[in-house]
Structures
1.
Amino acid sequence: MSVNITTTRLTVRCASQHVRAGTPTCKRRSFWNTVFSKPAAVKRRARREEESPALPTPTREYHPTPIPHETIVHSPANAGQLDAYSAKTIAVSIDDTPRTFDTVFLRDSCTCPRCVDPDSRQKLFQTSDIPQEIEGKARTVQDENKSWVIEVEWQNDVPGYGAEHRTRHSLNWLRRALNTEVELRGGVRYDDRVLWDRDTITKNNKWIDYKDWTGDDSVLFDALTHLNKYGLLFLKNVPESEESVVNIAGRIGTLKDTFYGRTWDVRSKPKAENIAYTPQFLGLHMDLLYTSNPPYLQLLHSLRARTPGGESFFSDSFHAAQKLEEASKTHFRTLCTFPVTYHYHHPTYHYHYTRPTIELHPYPKYSEPTNLALHRVNWSPPFQGPFEARIGGESQTALRNYLAASHAYEKILSAEESLFEYRLNEGECVIFDNRRVLHARRAFDATKGERWLKGAYVDDDVFFSKLRVLEERFRGGGLRMGL
Ligand SMILES: [Zn+2]
């Protein structure tokens, strides 16, 4: 990696470099200096005012074009040299591209011990404490690990901070802050996600031994990274105990409690209140879409698999959404907007939630309908409630459009080449992303034996928290602000 942090205010830096190096390296900067620097603009304005004092001076003369940020590759010769002027932005060359940071952003994210409590890691000032007039001067220095960092001195700093206050940010952190705002927010690298069909997942499936999952953090990190990429993971050699699924989920974090309980059983029983508890075929679906925050991970541990049939199958709803978008932008758009209601309506519980089938990231950068834009899919036909009455009115075409789009989507989801089928054996556990990977089950013959799965859920916050912690430990500090 080239060492290439640099700052703005090139005129003075240029001049001093000139003097130090004694070489004419500043032609371009002299040009900018002549044309755009403040004194030149002020002179021009003064001249014009003399010529025609009655005419209002054009506004742009009062706001000359800002001096362009120029990239200066740092060499040991100019490292440590402080900018001559304070400014509201600091330009830093990152991977040979000049990038500009607002001083408010750099000040706000200061992690020095006066700004962030070293023990509690809580912020000791408020964003609203930062004066609007804040400006900074930067220099580059090497930290104790010999990595390049920018060090900023402040003008008009937060009240109470003296002139000695310095803010340091590593090049690595600045790069992450620029490129991975979603990563910082959610701990997910969406560009790492691998969308799959049957062939891809068959080749890439990962099996983890229960002992390694529970005893080895590096295996756990590897497994969670895989789960984040593919949304599907299998464990084997799981002890025959109703507590095993608690131990498996507990390695990630707190289990999500729902009205089904902290853990729950999928076994056939008469007059079941949920279709999952019958031996019938259960089509591709997600769990608990009738709640505002459906579970992120679902775990199913097989305790008994002694009936014929009952195979599980899985389909990547993101892969299907991308294929749908390629095939028909109209259908894709319909699924992004048309509201579908899910409910769980029983004497004791009545859950109800309405959502479109496909949700995109609300951030402009991710607004293109590509893999990167997909945030969530909501698809759970067995738990659908009636559409809102106004949608079913005779003058509405929306429902017809939805019907056509849902036909097209379902066809891709359940195409043979999309489905990964697996019959879970006793002592095996599957973990899948309930907001992405659809699951289904073939019918089984409940009279011929026992089928019993023990299930649990884990929330997305819990999963990503663990992934970030392990990422910091095994790949070096990165996701935490200021590192
Ligand atoms: Zn600070």
2.
Amino acid sequence: MSKYFDPVSREDDLKALKRYLQPLKGQPGMLMGALHHVQDELGFIPKEAQELIAAELSIPMTEVYGVITFYSRFTEIPKGKKQISVCMGTACYVKGAVKILQEVETITGVKAGTTSEDGRVSVSTTRCLGACGMAPVLTEGTQVHGRLHPKDVIALLDHLKEDPKAMEEAQKHLEKAGESV
Ligand code: FES
């Protein structure tokens, strides 16, 4: 399980962040670096970290929050061990990205923009990935899969093969759809 769901680790993370921020105090232009640091370290930027950054760097919370929501690299939601993202750019949308996303959500049981409670998988949508010739496209971690049909999705989600519970869910789903894995 991800440590990010553990309140004890969270406290340690905040102490470490406070130490990291100490030498940056009073220096202008440190916000982006601090946010990248937290994103890299934790995989997301929790509210407590935002508040600490704002307090330690004497920056209004509204500014911290504004930067986080502006840049797609930053997220307030903890990412799962497996990260699946479906492209919703125009080319992918026209080629059936909505159906691909529905299939991903059904198979994983995770709605777009959220992470499973056990931290196993997160599902998101993304803007154009620059692979429009392969539309519709999804990414699983760093892997890009293109020219997808909704039926292809189950074979692509590798974590299903490593996770008996998830595989059982997927099988149920496909049985309902009159298919087999
Ligand atoms: S629209 Fe999906 S890769 Fe460009």
